[in-house]
Amino acid sequence: MSITDVRLAQLHLRLWSPEPGEYHAPAAVVTWNGHLLTCQPTGAPLDPAAAVLCPALARALAGPTRTLPPTPAEPMITALVADYAGATAPLQSEARSVVPEERFLARLNDGCRRCGSWKEADRDGRGRCDTVFCACTRRLLWLADEVCPAGKWAA
User: Fold this and answer.
1) Domain spans of the chain?
2) Torsions phi, psi of 3, nearest 5?
């Protein structure tokens, strides 16, 4: 899908959250998986308005191309509630530890689901936190060393 460089800057700043996919802007081709953005510069100059909006994007496109490591598939809320151990098994391979099921359910039920910023149906059932403090979506829910940026639950 074609987008403008300004829209690309908004995505880089997480001011715009489109459906996952590949997007073509004049300055870069980007892949967005719902929480991770990978940019491949096209060689075209970045729109000056986009550079002003997001100087970090201008620096990233001017520097060498980086490829971030793949992230494990993020489970849906229904899968986490139905079979927590099975749904978090791919995440166990990460260096960070996953919270016990009881703690995850407490975070979800007592924190997120009671918060007006929680959008459980978003991201195809994986959920999304819509608070201005939080660029995390909801992966934080199952990581032991994380806290809710809005103060709804602690580590």
Assistant:
1) 5-62, 77-142
2) -135, 165
